[in-house]
Amino acid sequence: MKRIRKAVFPVAGLGTRFLPATKAVPKEMLTVVDRPVIQHVVDEAIAAGIEHFVFVTGRNKGVIEEHFDKHFELEATLRSRGKTVELRQLEQQTPAAGATSFTRQQEPLGLGHAVWCARDIVGDEPFALLLPDMLHHGKVGCMAEMIKAYEAKGGNHIGVYPVRDDETHQYGIVDVAGSADKVAKIKAMVEKPARGTAPSNLAISGRYILQPKIFELLATQERGAGGEIQLTDSMLKLAEAEPFYAVRFDGKVYDTGSKIGFLAANVAYGLADEKLAPEFRAVIKDILG
Ligand code: UTP
Prior knowledge:
By secondary structure, the chain is of the alpha/beta class. It has one domain (about 5-289): Spore Coat Polysaccharide Biosynthesis Protein SpsA, Chain A, CATH 3.90.550. The chain has eleven helices and 13 strands. The chain has a five-stranded mixed β-barrel. A two-stranded antiparallel ribbon has the order 2-3. A two-stranded antiparallel ribbon has the order 7-13. β2 and β3 form a beta hairpin. α8 packs across α9. It is globular. About 40% of the residues are buried. The site of uridine 5'-triphosphate has 21 residues, from α5.
């Protein structure tokens, strides 16, 4: 079985749900507590043992590349001022030389197309895919759990989490054999099922482990919902030939591409920060009156 070494982060979307904030600043660079959203997601991948980070960027996303680069002047200044804690933090968060790749999706033709843009960099090996606007907050990282499941079973894996029954029409939903199990074989996947028709309440959370055959399928994938090349459409074809497993995430999932998800993430991460929590809790209480 091939090890999961590479992770793909598609960051070429337009972020229209978060305008005007995302007009000049990529939504992945909006800050949750003390770091950009994309840093939280890369940290999750690092914790899962990922060694190479592939970013599929687009217009106006150059600042993401800057964020993951070494900043000599800043590091020299921190060193000369004796700010060793901040310096160590910066050093730890900068990927090693050669451990990042950036490719460009020239037009936002959809998530499936963005993933396909990474085909040459990923090559012929299974890989992790993390949607950077989806933050997974829990005791154990979602991707770490998924890699563990992959090492036990092989195949393809999708992170899922339970949503309310009256929300299922907003998500990609999976039907599984054994919905209470941590890892369960997927029987069916439906993108945004009509109200009352969802086969379960397990929503796709934006974390995947996929076999490289997905690239072949994406290469000929026709446009689907919204006129975009949809990853789900190619995954459905792949599922005819290869097993797919759902890995249930027991923490909370926040869609930071939506205003409410972003605000909720800041509250949750702020309250989970040992140093900030006491004061932050008092501030929230005060605001709530
Ligand atoms: P979203 O649909 O959440 O992102 O795609 P978006 O299109 O930026 O958001 P809105 O709906 O306009 O607000 C999920 C992920 O796929 C990436 C996005 O950057 C996001 O991380 N994506 C989407 C691409 O990289 N390219 C695309 O063509 C579409």
